[in-house]
Amino acid sequence: MSPPVPAEVMQLNSQAVQAMASRQLGAARQLLLRALELDPKFLPGWMNLAATRRAEGDLAGAMAAVDAALKVDPMAFMALLMRASLFEAMGKRRKAANAYNIALGLTPSENKLDPATRRAVAHGLEFHARHAAELDSFLKQTLFADRVSGPSAEARRMRHFVDHLLGKRRPFRSEPTNFFYPGLPSIEFFDREYFPWLPELEAATPMIQAELAGVLDDEVAAAELEPYMQRNEDEPLEQWVELNRSARWSAYHFALYGRAYESHRRKCPFTAALLDRMPQPSIPDRSPASLFSILDPHTHIPAHNGAANIRLLCHLPLILPPDCRFRVGNETRQWRIGEAFLFDDTIEHEAWNDSDQRRAVLIFDVWHPLLSADERDFVTRAMTALDEFNAME
Questions:
Q1: How many whole angstroms separate alpha carbon 353 and alpha carbon 249?
Q2: How high is the pLDDT of residue 144?
Q3: Which one of 55, 190, 283, 391 counts the least CB within 10 Å of its CB?
Q4: φ, ψ of residue 371 in degrees (nearest 5)
Q5: What domains lie within the chain, and their CATH numbers?
């Protein structure tokens, strides 16, 4: 806990503020210097001294006072914001842009800002945006646009690197809730080249759609849809309060935690046979998993992370009204009928159905393509051994 500020220091600061208000800048400066001699860690005194020196036209002196304030509190928002504005006033545009970027990242909520500070924040945002646009243009001219164009993984990584430099992207990493296998890259959407079976899956879209329609048109089968999210009352619900045990996000499972839903497989034999040909993990009581995922109109699946990065999830859209989208990390995609994609669900992701109709997607897990056969066998044995151990009394 900081020691109390001496009464004399507070009195000198109050007198200085009055002098500043009446434009007696020299007097204000002397009062503040006396206060800071008595208490060199008095942050408001340094900030008022910086403001006084700036009003006097002494930008270097103002910066020295701001630097002293930041030695007292390196995270002081107002000091960081003033530092950026002083760099700007000195004509040091690049330093100003970087300083604004640091300060703006610590901006308090708007209701805690007075009107003058709100204007300063708005100006900082505008200044930094202009800087980012200039840098974007410069890098595009310098880095040879032909090298970062095209669909290759290398070109995409180069584009993303530049976007990170520009602050257009933030780093998202694989953060599984349960099982983390080290050494696997954090890739949001994977390139199709890893999955030679995708054309077979996508060509089967009309047949899968027909079997889904049969489920939804059959009262008995449709009654077997169950809420996707089913957490116990003693589990933390967090972002799942609205969707827990709700039919707004429902599932027609073919397999869950490695257990087959035989009646569902018989209802949709073509889909079941196709899933059997996919490279799904087979781990007792854990995988495979596959389902028709049904999302009601105007429903949002909140941001969340999956359990294990040893697998990816595949989405094949089947019923797709407009205004549906899906985000993984930095990238938001629109689904397209007949086009599947695979993503790492241990990277933060979420989905929206903002339409007036329900949306349906076939979802299933597959082994992570960068795991070797030996690693897949090892993971299977390790998870099985863990379950066996936990079952012991």
A1: 10
A2: 61
A3: 391
A4: -85, 130
A5: 7-135 (1.25.40.10), 192-391 (2.60.120.330)
